[in-house]
């Protein structure tokens, strides 16, 4: 009896083996990475600075933090570079040592994994489909009153592509400050938002000491292999505790140098935003017009789509797409997501057009 395996995220090797495909023939709509790839300017800069591997990086990453300070508009002393967001999540949880954590879900599983190594309990607060996965701040605050001391949210959220906007975020942070609840906000996808200033919580770090914002370069800057992330908090005492627990020279010399170069490439940043904003609007409009699906207003570089056609599962739609070399994400493994859902990111226009056609054909 042949049983189809379950694929998670960008499980490209298993997918290729099962469907007899080559990696180079697959368009990775499930990875949420900028389709433009790594900046050509950054590639050239890295190639001409390989001698940096012969030296230790600056242990304080002073130049990198100054570059990030200018990019984010906050003081350099608020910033902690790290070996990807995963390291910073682990450091934050270790330094904070929460007892009772609430996670806004459905979301990225790494938060739960890292919490499992701590002494904290963990529960999910479910975003509701009937509210188009938009947060009800008042209801969340009522839940937080039940004894939580740590809140984790991804904004814009993965996989829903929904976002908590500036006014609601301010109300939430004010409530959490009054109840001694520390808030970790993962802004991996914030640079894809239509209006970054309406979504980002970075400006709040100058006001709230119970807040840390995490960002990285894996998705927007198409550099997941660089393993570079950074945390931002105005609570410099807490930042110091995290730094004390961090392995020295956590980020290598090339990563620190390339990180600076990424944020300086304004043409690449503008080109990326133009591509994503234009194509996201087109894809959202086209999927919304397909009778077999329901989708939700997207703030990240991907769309969450519910399958409405009776008898058609997320596995069926994944299968139809992958056979055309289009790898989307079957969302059946996400907690707090009931029903048949798929997720796909924005790629190059011609590939997006192929996906729109495959999705339409998948539901007749």
List keywords for this structure.
alpha/beta, seven-stranded mixed sheet, 13 helices
Protein described:
The structure is a single chain. This protein is α/β, with parallel strands linked by helices and 364 residues long. Helix content is 38%, strand content 15%. The chain is built from 13 helices and 13 strands. It has a seven-stranded mixed beta sheet, with helices on both faces. Strands 9-10-13-12 form a four-stranded antiparallel beta sheet, covered by helices on one side. Strands 1-11 form a two-stranded parallel ribbon. Strand 6, helix 8 (196-199) and strand 7 (211-216) form a beta-alpha-beta unit. Helix 3 runs parallel beside helix 10 (253-264) and helix 11 (266-288) packs parallel to helix 13. The longest helix is centred in the last third of the chain and has 23 residues, at 266-288. The protein starts with 11 loop residues before the first helix and ends with a helix.
Task: Describe, in short, the structure shown.
With 364 residues, the protein is of the alpha/beta class. It has 13 helices and 13 strands.
What is the element layout, followed by pairings?
Layout (H helix, E strand, L loop, with lengths): L11 H8 L7 E2 L11 H8 L14 H11 L6 E4 L1 H13 L3 E6 L4 H6 L5 E6 L10 H8 L5 E5 L11 H13 L3 E5 L9 H4 L11 E6 L12 E4 L3 H10 L7 H12 L1 H23 L4 E3 L6 E6 L6 H9 L3 E2 L1 E2 L10 E5 L3 H14 L2
Parallel strand pairs: 1-11, 3-4, 3-5, 5-6, 6-7
Antiparallel strand pairs: 2-8, 7-8, 9-10, 10-13, 12-13
């Amino acid at each position: 009896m042949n049983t189809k395996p379950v694929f998670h995220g960008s499980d490209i090797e298993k997918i290729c083996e099962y469907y007899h495909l080559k990696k180079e023939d697959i368009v990775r709509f499930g990875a949420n990475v900028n389709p433009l790839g790594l900046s050509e300017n950054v590639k050239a800069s890295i190639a001409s600075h390989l001698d940096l591997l012969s030296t230790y990086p600056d242990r304080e990453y002073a130049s990198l933090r100054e570059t990030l300070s200018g990019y984010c508009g906050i003081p350099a002393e608020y910033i902690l570079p790290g070996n990807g967001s995963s390291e910073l999540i682990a450091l934050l949880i270790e330094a904070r040592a929460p007892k009772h954590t609430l996670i806004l879900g459905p979301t990225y599983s790494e938060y739960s994994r890292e919490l499992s190594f701590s002494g904290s309990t963990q529960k999910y607060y479910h975003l509701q489909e009937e509210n188009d996965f938009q947060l009800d701040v008042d209801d969340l605050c009522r839940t937080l009153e039940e004894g939580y001391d740590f809140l984790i949210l991804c904004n814009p959220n993965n996989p829903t592509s929904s976002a908590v906007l500036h006014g609601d975020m301010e109300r939430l942070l004010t409530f959490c400050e009054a109840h001694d609840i520390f808030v970790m906000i993962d802004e991996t996808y914030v640079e894809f938002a239509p209006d970054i200033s309406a979504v980002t919580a970075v400006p709040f770090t100058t006001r709230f000491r119970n807040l840390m914002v995490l960002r990285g370069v894996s998705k927007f800057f198409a550099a997941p292999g660089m393993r570079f992330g950074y945390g931002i908090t105005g609570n410099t005492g807490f930042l110091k505790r995290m730094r004390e627990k961090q392995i020295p020279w956590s980020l290598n010399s090339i990563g620190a140098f390339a990180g600076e170069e990424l944020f300086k490439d304004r043409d690449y940043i503008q080109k990326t935003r133009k591509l994503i904003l234009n194509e996201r609007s087109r894809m959202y409009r086209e999927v919304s017009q397909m009778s077999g699906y329901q989708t939700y207003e997207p703030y990240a570089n991907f769309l969450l789509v519910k399958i409405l056609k009776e008898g058609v599962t997320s596995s069926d739609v994944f299968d139809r797409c992958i056979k055309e070399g289009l790898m989307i994400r079957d969302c059946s493994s996400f907690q707090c997501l009931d029903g048949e859902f798929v997720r796909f990111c924005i790629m190059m226009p011609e590939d997006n057009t192929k996906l729109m056609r495959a999705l339409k054909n998948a539901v007749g």
